[in-house]
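note to self — DONT lose this again. spent like an hour looking for the file last time. sequence + predicted structure for the chain T wanted, 123 res
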Amino acid sequence: MSREITNTKSRFSNQELPDGRTAFRVLSVDKAYGKNNSEFFIWKLQHERGEGEQLLMPNMMGGLLRVLKCTESEPNIFDWDTFDQVNKVFLATVSHKPDKNDSSVIRQHMSEFAPVDENEIPF
């Protein structure tokens, strides 16, 4: 086991995103690795109040990849390119929940991904 210092503060500029429905534009997607070589993706996103990052584990991304029209070769198996997602737009419900292991830490989550018309994006 190694000693870690982890910043769990919001990665969105200006302020934390409020709970509720928000439109986003993808600025970039980067793959990263955590403990035990587990993979996750860092989605850099723009919204009407600024921009920031949302960390998503692969098991959290199925709905988002479907909304972004990525190829689903088998149920829940996607063939996609991170670069192809740049400038795509989507809606998501943002919520804040206590961490499963430490209830004093609040984590931001995204769910209920949905398509949105480019013309309806306010930024």
